[in-house]
Write a structure and sequence with these properties.
- The chain has one helix and five strands; from the N terminus they run H-E-E-E-E-E.
- With 93 residues, the protein is an alpha+beta fold.
- This is Acyl-CoA oxidase/dehydrogenase middle domain-containing protein.
- GO terms for molecular function: acyl-CoA dehydrogenase activity; flavin adenine dinucleotide binding.
- It holds the Pfam family Acyl-CoA_dh_M.
């Protein structure tokens, strides 16, 4: 987020995490893929102004306590190592 995130992402997610005002987690591992990032199945697709995310994540440290998650999802077609994005999602969503 620090290197590639928009100013909005930095304000909404990064700054509160750094200050300790929120708890965050990272969602990468999946039941059938484990830590094999190229094999993840979670997809995120744009539908109008919304981003629809479908998939399953496991083994997430702080997942039960987090205010937001930075999750890995497939966002385009193509080679598995080039078709993914990290997406910040409030856990209330």
């Amino acid at each position: 987020i620090s290197s590639f995130g928009s100013d909005k992402l930095k304000r909404e997610f990064l700054a509160p995490a750094i200050s300790g005002d929120v708890v965050t987690c990272l969602g990468v591992s999946e039941p059938h893929a484990g830590s094999d990032v190229a094999a993840i199945k979670t997809k995120a697709e744009r539908r109008g102004d919304d981003l629809i995310i479908n998939g399953t994540k496991l083994w997430i440290t702080n997942g039960a306590h987090a205010d937001w998650i930075c999750l890995l999802a497939n966002t385009s077609q193509g080679p598995p190592h080039r078709s993914k994005s990290l997406i910040c999602v409030p856990m209330k969503t």
